[in-house]
Amino acid sequence: MRAISIGAVAKATGVKVPTIRYYEDVGLLPVADRTESNRRSYDAASVSRLRFIRHARDLGFAVDAIRQLLNLSDQPDHSCSDVDSIARRHLAEIDEKIAQLTALRAEVKRMVDEGEHGRVAECRVIEVLGDHTACLHESH
């Protein structure tokens, strides 16, 4: 099997070299073989695994969830229910973030809409930022 340099892997996957090293350090990617000159050397399976990791990260999965998904992907006869459970937990986290961002957007929009649009001394945005009790929500 042809050995692939870390630079070529980075180019092929769109993952930066330091990130590839980090994924090795945290155990998402197997430790690379080394050449005689002590350079990292990867195979096609590592490139494929790194593409999986990158896509999962692009979708917002946390490193621990990706580790679990990779472990499950190495067990093709295992039930998909564990994978579904991980994805459902992630979906719930996304929904929670959307709700938080929606509340945040509403608060900032309200500040802007209620603003005097005149002088800073009368600016509603400055007033609300200076006094959290003027907000509609305790946390946003």
Task: Give structural notes.
- The protein is elongated.
- The chain has helices at 6-13, 17-25, 44-58, 63-73, 81-113, 124-130, and strands at residues 4-5, 33-34, 40-42.
- The chain contains six helices and three strands.
- The chain has a three-stranded antiparallel beta sheet with strand order 1-3-2.
Strand order of the largest sheet: 1-3-2
Reading the helices and strands in chain order gives EHHEEHHHH
Indicate the low-confidence ranges by residue numbers. none
Backbone CA Rg: 23 Å
Binned, the helix content reads 55-70%
Q: How much of the residues is beta strand, in percent? A: 5-15%
- The chain-level structural class is mainly alpha
Summarize the structure in short.
With 140 residues, the protein is mainly alpha-helical. It has helices at 6-13, 17-25, 44-58, 63-73, 81-113, 124-130, and strands at residues 4-5, 33-34, 40-42. Helices cover 59% and strands 5% of the residues.
